Amino acid sequence: MTKRPTQINIQLDEPRYRGTKRKRYEALVSLRDQLIEQVGLLSGNSLSVNHNAGEDMADIGSDNFTREMGLSVASEEGKKVSLIQEALKRLEKGNFGKCIDCKVSIEEGRLNAIPYAKLCVKCKSIREENEEDNFNAYAAEELTE
């Protein structure tokens, strides 16, 4: 007779973190679950079309805009889910809370605000400045052509 997995066996697979690490794990998992639920709701609502013959074009346009916005938000939430999964892997490996660029500890306030943060404030600012510089250079190039 073969043994079937029980609820107890499944629960044993969950990491056994303590203290701050446990709180971080629980916060990440809770946020991930909320986002997955939101993505499901947004995707379901945004993919349904309920147009009737003779419906006003302005109403159809408004519905299409709302649907596109819902899909855009769902896409962004999906990206956050991926970032949370990466954060859970860093937590497992023991390098959670360390900036991936400079290896300095990320401030507690930042981790409380953005639990999946992988950059310290300084490195995030540097990256944003570089992105802005690249965008400005690209925009200037487009204007001269």
- What is the subunit organization of this protein? single chain
User: SSE order, as H and E?
Assistant: HHHHH
| Number of distinct beta strands | 0
How far the N terminus sits from the C terminus, by CA atoms, comes to 76 Å
Write down the overall geometry: flat
Determine the fraction of residues in helical runs and give it as a percent range. Answer: over 70%
| Unreliable runs | 1-12
Task: Compute the average pLDDT.
Answer: 79
* Estimated share of beta-strand residues: under 5%
Continuous helix count: 5
- The computed structural class is mainly alpha
Main beta sheet, described?
none
- What is the gyration radius calculated from CA atoms? 22 Å
Note down, in words, how this protein is organized.
The longest helix is centred in the middle third of the chain and has 37 residues, at 57-93. By secondary structure, this protein is mainly α. It has a domain at 17-49 and 62-96. The radius of gyration is 22 Å and the shape is flat. The chain has five helices and no strands. Helix 2 (19-47) runs antiparallel to helix 3 (57-93).
In short:
It contains 5 helices and no strands.
